Amino acid sequence: MSEVAGRLSVIEGAKHLEKPFGGSGVLISGVPGVARANVAIIGAGVVGENALKMAVGLNANVTVLDVNMKKLTYLDDIYGSKITTLYSNNHNVEDACINADLVISGVLLPGAKAPKLIKRAFYKNMRPGSVIVDVAIDQGGSTEVSKATYHDDPTFVVDGIVHYCVANMPGAVPRTSTIALNNSTLRYGLMIADMGLEEAIKESEPLKFGVNTYEGKCTCRGVADAFNLECQEL
Amino acid sequence: MSEVAGRLSVIEGAKHLEKPFGGSGVLISGVPGVARANVAIIGAGVVGENALKMAVGLNANVTVLDVNMKKLTYLDDIYGSKITTLYSNNHNVEDACINADLVISGVLLPGAKAPKLIKRAFYKNMRPGSVIVDVAIDQGGSTEVSKATYHDDPTFVVDGIVHYCVANMPGAVPRTSTIALNNSTLRYGLMIADMGLEEAIKESEPLKFGVNTYEGKCTCRGVADAFNLECQEL
Amino acid sequence: MSEVAGRLSVIEGAKHLEKPFGGSGVLISGVPGVARANVAIIGAGVVGENALKMAVGLNANVTVLDVNMKKLTYLDDIYGSKITTLYSNNHNVEDACINADLVISGVLLPGAKAPKLIKRAFYKNMRPGSVIVDVAIDQGGSTEVSKATYHDDPTFVVDGIVHYCVANMPGAVPRTSTIALNNSTLRYGLMIADMGLEEAIKESEPLKFGVNTYEGKCTCRGVADAFNLECQEL
Amino acid sequence: MSEVAGRLSVIEGAKHLEKPFGGSGVLISGVPGVARANVAIIGAGVVGENALKMAVGLNANVTVLDVNMKKLTYLDDIYGSKITTLYSNNHNVEDACINADLVISGVLLPGAKAPKLIKRAFYKNMRPGSVIVDVAIDQGGSTEVSKATYHDDPTFVVDGIVHYCVANMPGAVPRTSTIALNNSTLRYGLMIADMGLEEAIKESEPLKFGVNTYEGKCTCRGVADAFNLECQEL
Amino acid sequence: MSEVAGRLSVIEGAKHLEKPFGGSGVLISGVPGVARANVAIIGAGVVGENALKMAVGLNANVTVLDVNMKKLTYLDDIYGSKITTLYSNNHNVEDACINADLVISGVLLPGAKAPKLIKRAFYKNMRPGSVIVDVAIDQGGSTEVSKATYHDDPTFVVDGIVHYCVANMPGAVPRTSTIALNNSTLRYGLMIADMGLEEAIKESEPLKFGVNTYEGKCTCRGVADAFNLECQEL
Amino acid sequence: MSEVAGRLSVIEGAKHLEKPFGGSGVLISGVPGVARANVAIIGAGVVGENALKMAVGLNANVTVLDVNMKKLTYLDDIYGSKITTLYSNNHNVEDACINADLVISGVLLPGAKAPKLIKRAFYKNMRPGSVIVDVAIDQGGSTEVSKATYHDDPTFVVDGIVHYCVANMPGAVPRTSTIALNNSTLRYGLMIADMGLEEAIKESEPLKFGVNTYEGKCTCRGVADAFNLECQEL
Question: Would you say C75 and C31 are in contact if contact means Cβ atoms under 8 Å apart?
Fold first, then answer.
């Protein structure tokens, strides 16, 4: 689903840069003779990589930030002169945000709250009508003001900056999202149908790992902690 | 402005393919393992070429149709294995529309009504929720049901097909559009300011060609005809 | 050698699409204004990746299928808008075959018979003269009718579909194949020449792994099983 | 048709480089670690450009020669580091042929015999089994030994060099060729059907230009000269 | 020769950005995680296009400015997301220069002094050690302080900005330059040798146009004006 | 730093091919109609990959040699028809050097002297004025005559071949190099500042690995061996 969200984030960003949607009225691609939009992508994980692919495809001037040098090197191999890669630190994040027409944040730490890398203090130096698409909203968001929104009213404005914070982005393209989900999960469903749950779990480590409750007992440490339940090893 | 409209058409199309906007819920780019959308671009003029650039950038499976073989050959040089070029005839247009998730029409005949190449009869064989962006709406549109819409309510649905027919597409990105317009027109404004209208017209053929009225008389044949005025040579 | 076979498979496929060779008379690349051939590549292993590279190079409209999502994602990074990647399941394989002018199968399971993914039932819905290049023929082939052929009579026709099933494809380009083989094996030959077999085996794990018989005893489990011999640890 | 022939020429060349077809046994693309074939394309007209596209697509090391600097510059823009462009003179043609595994000649002078740019004297310095595809065979061919061949026996060998000289190359892919031809000619057929020949000729300059006989008189200067007929202006 | 100078200009610029050569110590390409240099190319004629090709090749962040919209559109087709194209006006030139680590000027007006587009007033806002390569130096140069230099001492510094103003840049790569020159001129030399000057001039318009003196009289208007000679029609 | 050196090596090589710098006077990129330079890159490690990227960017005809087949395959994926990959053995290295205008060696064996792969015996068959950039000079160099040089006198000539052997190449672009170094090391400095050395070492394996002396005792095996000191485990 991160791939869907990453790709969608650029379409949403480009759309909300339109004036009638509160944006600054910049066409992400520019046209010959008129500068294209600057896009800053914070985090080069699955979300960031997929956003990058779409933003480059729309001819934006893209800067991508991460601390993972191996990933930045790979992106440099793939995209070459099409992008700027920057090591992610406070100074570079601020710089990239201030220069950006569109900021996409895909900074997700597995099982932890997303860090608030995008400070409200940056906003006063950004162009009014610039857009932040906060794909990390599921885990609390990457800005200090992020709060989850829905597809029917996807944005809010703080200090002139448009925030797109839809928590369930892939829900907008259910046909693609469902097939993508099936590609990853159908085999497990078939295993359970064929073998019964117990046998299937013995066969498949990932399936075992995915069981949250069994015979009325919580079997997943994370869920148990979150809901203050007793956890029982499967 | 055709460049702005052409580029924007793909962003609008991708956006309106989203389920909450009436579309079929397909992500234009697909994701690895899930098919990408089919995009048919009818007409490889300025609108079509710019739409093509964006649609390819978003990893869609693009087919472009035109009768201009020289232009199709140029596009084949530039885009190679990224696109399919088809000679435009009734059979190919129907085929391309029926297979498309998104149809973009940029068929503009200078000074004439756009031909209605996209028949309503095609719709029953198209996937419900497919989108037609009719950039030719300024000149009457390319479908049999096209009618101009506005940015605040840009689409209508006929036989399950979403029609995007905003007549003033570049108005959504005024910052880019204004600069693009200035790049083409500012020099003429400066000429008039520097030299006075009469001298400027003598210097510049395009400027002369752009004068519609002079000393209370209509000086442009097309406008005169349209409004039933007497036309006086400048 | 899989790299040679994978690359060659597209040249063979393109050649046998010619009418005088039994094919449907389609030029794999198309020309501007005429659709290019659809190529389905089943399996994105070494054979599939190399076939992909050549098929894209010849401007075909390529769909590649595999269950390995990581590999599909890598191919999406490298080829972007040039290909469609599909998760491999019965439905998608059938769909891809039916739409294909050329099917290339490179589905090889190490040390096992190739699965018969391409059903004869598909043929009646394929265009007559379409071509299947079955690179998996060494391990039994991927179609229900595959049988090994030779370079002097490389194809046979079943239900109108041309099957190319040469078992030793790299033999057609011995100059390239020999050098490729030397690049991988010469170092081991030199080790044996320099050190004697016993010392060389102690130095090199891959070399030890490659010894099939020693002092009259079979030392390779697989060969021993196949020929019903006693196997003796080296 | 030149586009079909140009594209096909590379597939034929790659195929006939195979050992069982008399070639040197080189895989045109090479594989990683093994050099790719050198391909020399003489003439950057329609044939040459289309051959170039396919040869680059198959990862060959391509050199293209022409005297048209504007065309070479365009190819440099499109292909950049993928090709070498050389000004065509005797020295460069000889050099390119001697280093080539595959030579493709598309030197066509409209309405004249093709110049014999590829001298038999080059052959002794070429690698045995190298292939020449002489697309100019329709107009006499580009080598000193060229003679037309047919699809059922397409090659002959002189001094160890394989010559492919099929005069009607597009005939191998009739499906693609027929559609390509229709794209260019159908409109004229429809004009004649709709308007009658006389009216159609008045409307269309190219159609008029294409009339060879009218009311029993030859109306085409070239044909008249060739067959020693009287020529009558249409 | 403009092609040689344009390509060389980027190598010279990259070299002189090195600290030991007075530059700011920036590597033109950056490395993953470190920003690449900004390169502004003023003028998209032959010099500019060739500089662009090399600067993009070295992964610089390139902005190209011109008033020729058709050329900017072509560059957008070829380079897509790799470059920014800007309409050339005072504001954009100043902006591009101030942000640039390397400025390359190739603004040549045929037969006229190059306009002084790069103002000394810009320098105080540029990073010290930035480099200007003034390929227009042959026609007076594009900066207010340009003066011709030679290969043995190619640069001078004004207000902290390094100026590279070698008037005969192609002289640094005589092997390439000589062949390039021969490609364009040899045919004329051969014509004169074969036919004598008088006949050759009758055959060839360009050759006639290139004659500066004949029988002791100056026959070229431009040269005559420059040296205050009488001009006699050939 | 290897990335900086690898990228810089091509700029240095291109510069020193200029006649005034002792080179053969070849422009690395060629121009349309004139052959581009042949560049041989020996070793496809970090240095080689980065040199490759720049050399391809400058449109050189690049051959890269390594024994690592996986790396060659990756480069083939990324660069396709833009490069030739060769398995590195004596024969191929000699061949590549003899045909090269520019040789870049980045063969570094961690903690060992670089192998002398480039024999002086090759020089007599190379074009005079060809350039070798020996990035392995830090570890003794890759040629039989290599000796370290400095930025103020970077080259020497042996048998007509220009050797560039600056030991501290990244020192030429200190701005880029310093930031690159900071990206990798700053976090460790901050850890020591925050936690004190002892705690920081406990937290971070790489930091511990980097300590050479502690309380007056040498704690690094390599340094201890090199200077004949007693080594004390940290």
Answer: no
